[in-house]
Amino acid sequence: MPDSYIIEVNSQTAGIVVRSQGGYCFFASSHRFNRLEGQLFRNAREAERAARKLINGDVKEAA
In the chain, where are the structural domains located? Predict the structure, then answer.
């Protein structure tokens, strides 16, 4: 299993997730995704879902 993944939403790079103890840590590549910065996710797919929810305005669900 890879140690990092690029997260993209609507052809825009949201950030990367890097495997750490307990999951994958999110690092934002755009200020639009700063709300997810440093959050820990179980896997890359979960981080991608959170980024999609954030970009679609569902902030409560993304955090």
Answer: 2-57
